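Q: What structure does this chain adopt?
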Amino acid sequence: MQEKEEKTEDEKRREKWFWLCSILSFGRKEKQMLLDFFGTPEEIWQADEREIGEVFWENEEHKKAFFREKAAWDAKKAWNEMQKKGIRFISCEDTSYPQKLKEIYDYPFGLFIRGELPKENEKTVAIVGARLCSAYGRHFAVKIAEELAGYDISLVSGMARGIDGTAQRAAIKGGGKSYAVLGCGPDICYPMQNRDLYQNLLKNGGVLSEYPPGSSPLPFHFPMRNRIISGLSDLVIVIEAREKSGSLITADQALEQGRDVMVLPGRAGDALSAGCNRLIDQGAGIFLSTDQILERLKIKKKNHTNTKKTYIALESEVNLVYSVLEFQAKNLQSIADETNLTPQKVSAILVRLMLCGLVAEDVKNHYSKV
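A:
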């Protein structure tokens, strides 16, 4: 019987990185401590109890967890199961590892990927924002994402509800690419409501994570994944963020990484814009148009001389109702007061405008421009 071929040094090294990045008991901080002490994943694997104890001398439970996970580790089984799910792994030593990520100080030691990664010369912009966003925020998330797609600028985000998912859908609809950084394993669609987006990302970009397949979407994973969103991007745009939000964490990390940050301004006193307005007060760039993004990314603006626009002729009363609407939703009575029409008349006109795709009912009896 022919003997199995021995693994190459590169394969052995990759296997140990795969093991280190698959340890669930430790976060990046503990893995960095091990690498600082031992130098390589191979040396960590070969370490005995005394040596591991020197690293985790303040935490006996870490030492126990290390040997418990090591004893249960089956590299071949884990690798085969990962490949069956269409997932691949690259370590920070791999030539295909994104250079943009390698430049940040707390880069992930490995990535688990479904689909593609951004290419080295691919321009990327992150759009992040509130999960419970307004019609105003959704409008600009779609507008920016679609316009960027027209310039082959790819979108990076977290596939979350609200601004993230809205922007990523718009990027794909506009013919562009989008990449989602997950706070769980790349085989898990979270949130489940974005299953359609998850499937489209696999065809028009990719999903990636520093967490191995099967990892649950635990709360502390999400602040950590935000540094990867900004790290993969040339520029970060924040669209609606409360005073305390994950989007502000992404913005702070982007600034630490030397990335440009732009913010969509909002109305003073609006809770959804409190975080954005604070970033502006601290010196973040104000987003006014995609021309600013093109200028910062050194992309020449296209000449749209043949662009066709469709105009819808509206009757005077219909036009009156449409003219008082904004991207921030207004309630039915306010619209009636501003137009001096009866609520019944306004309601009938709003139905017509919704059928034309010009107006949306955000919540019951609250309407905004689309």
